[in-house]
Design goal:
The chain has 503 residues and is an alpha/beta fold. The protein is built from 17 helices and 17 strands. α4 links the parallel β3 and β4. The radius of gyration is 26 Å and the shape is elongated.
């Protein structure tokens, strides 16, 4: 077995401690990286009577890579006015050790003048990268280390998400989907690039090119037709009236598209089948909708499956709703050192596909690193729903969420009646009036003054579809670019009753 190379991670000691620890946990937890790297952190050294600065410089000498995390502070200065961080950087430079520099934040106005000078000095010698969050930092480091291993001949083929997708070219990626992503990432996480950024520049920034060719991750994120290249990346959604997998399946959909589209479609499928209660506007400006399983729990479970699945497998993600539970299966296993028990405690984030996970984080599909399962458990507890179960069987990771035991209390309104208790927002009523004729989603978003298509679909449009007031003109292709919406007979009856009441 090849001897592991030391990775020296340096920063001002009292700054970026969480980031240093997260990088070590990530490298040691990744199945590939831990084969090649051992991470050195100065806080892990045992107490000794040796001078700290001498110890650190000695560790730099034994390292194959120097990783510098630069923040705002410059740190302690010796008699010559130089900090240990700068000493370590200069020592690595003198020894010819490869250096990777990551600068936190895009605003330099608050930086110590000497730290700013160090950043500029590093920039004169090598390419440095900026980061705003820990998931972004781990994704950047991952791409840098993989590139290093390939360049030095340690690996002959790249990990699946980083490797070029065979036969795919930039023409197979959608500029519109990429622009939508950049616009949302800029808005949600202050991502530095905007929708006006060219495709090559954006893909380089996201580490999604392999020798100028789109990687598997690029195709899965922004492909025009991802399943043309990765057929098993689809999501299969099934609804059973009983508690067992049994044919014929009452409702069965196979969804295709980018990872964002797969997540949205699968969530919509589940939420449309769950029982819901519609409150009154006395509880807020909009009538609240409460589902038997909280939507955020369903979303987190589906995002986990799509983001962390093994895309090299021929199996697909399966979402199955039974009379008593929701089960979500994805091909793949938990990466060491994660265990099923660890998912119920604070744990590091070790994404199976970091180059896919980062864009999902930037668009808030993923909120915080390593907290997804804990959030699911907390949300289920608040909703008085049994805690989710996690299992691993035959190369498959399973998430199981039980439906409420008191099912009779959770029966939704009859879809064939005009519910007297149904309370809609002003915008939803205006949308119903607009849909006397067929209209596209962009037209309806304009009425509500919304710019976020995903949130509009979930918060405004989905309840109207679920209550049978609206229907799709192309129900077999819910994501079709030609999709439009129109009133159902129930919707017309509700609208007429509402207008008479208004008179």
């Amino acid at each position: 077995m090849t001897a592991r190379k030391q990775l020296f991670i340096s920063s001002v000691q009292k700054q970026l401690a969480d980031e240093r620890r997260a990088l070590k946990e990530y490298v040691h937890g990744d199945p590939l990286l831990r084969r090649f790297f051992e991470v050195f952190l100065f806080e892990d050294l045992p107490a000794s009577d040796r001078r700290a600065d001498a110890v650190y410089l000695r560790e730099v000498e034994q390292s194959a890579l120097y990783v510098g995390l630069f923040g705002n502070e410059y740190g302690y200065e010796d008699t010559e006015g130089i900090s240990p961080t700068e000493r370590e950087f200069d020592h690595a430079t003198t020894l010819g050790i490869e250096r990777l520099i990551f600068v936190k934040g895009g605003d330099d106005s608050a930086r110590h003048p000497k730290m700013l000078a160090l950043i500029r000095k590093a920039g004169d010698q090598l390419i440095r990268r900026r980061f705003g969050s820990t998931p972004e930092l781990t994704a950047i480091l991952y791409a840098s280390l993989i590139e290093y291993l390939e360049r030095n001949g340690d690996i002959r083929s790249l990990p699946f998400d980083a490797a070029a997708c065979p036969q795919a070219t930039l023409d197979d990626l959608s500029e519109e989907k990429l622009a939508d992503f950049l616009d949302r990432a800029h808005r949600e996480r202050a991502y530095p690039l905007t929708s006006k950024t060219s495709m090559p520049k954006a893909l380089v920034h996201l580490n999604l090119l392999d020798r100028d060719r789109p990687s598997h991750a690029a195709v899965l994120l922004f492909g025009v037709k991802p399943q043309r290249f990765l057929i098993s990346s689809e999501v299969k959604c099934m609804h059973f009236h009983g508690t067992e997998i049994r044919k014929p399946i009452p409702s069965y959909q196979i969804y295709k598209g980018t990872v964002f589209e797969l997540v949205d479609q699968a969530i919509d499928f589940v939420m449309s089948k769950l029982a819901a209660r519609v409150g009154t506007r006395a509880e807020g400006p909009r009538a609240p909708v409460t589902y038997e399983i909280p939507r955020d729990v369903v979303a987190e479970a589906i995002v986990n499956a799509v983001a962390h699945r093994d895309y090299a497998s021929n199996a697909s993600v399966q979402v199955m709703l039974f009379a008593d539970r929701l089960e979500i299966w994805n091909p793949g296993q938990l990466p060491p050192p994660l265990t099923l028990d660890a998912l119920r405690k604070p744990h590091p984030s070790i994404p199976h596909n970091p180059l896919i996970a980062e864009p999902l984080f930037l668009t808030r599909y993923i909120e915080r690193a390593g907290t997804g399962t804990l959030d699911m458990i907390a949300l289920c507890s608040e909703a008085k729903v049994p805690a989710p179960e996690f299992k691993q069987e035959v190369g498959t990771f399973m998430q199981i969420i039980r439906r409420p035991e008191s099912q009779p209390d959770w029966q939704p309104e009859s879809k064939g009646q005009v519910g007297a208790k149904l309370a809609l927002s002003r915008h939803q009523v205006e949308i119903l009036g607009k849909c006397l004729e067929d209209h596209a989603i962009t037209d309806l978003m304009g009425i509500a003054g919304r710019s976020d298509r995903t949130k509009f679909r979930h918060q405004v449009l989905a309840p109207l579809l679920e209550d049978g007031l609206l229907e799709m003109t192309i129900p077999d292709k819910p994501t079709s670019s030609k999709q439009k919406y129109r009133l159902t007979a129930k919707g017309k009856a509700w609208l007429n009753a509402h207008l008479k009441g208004a008179d």
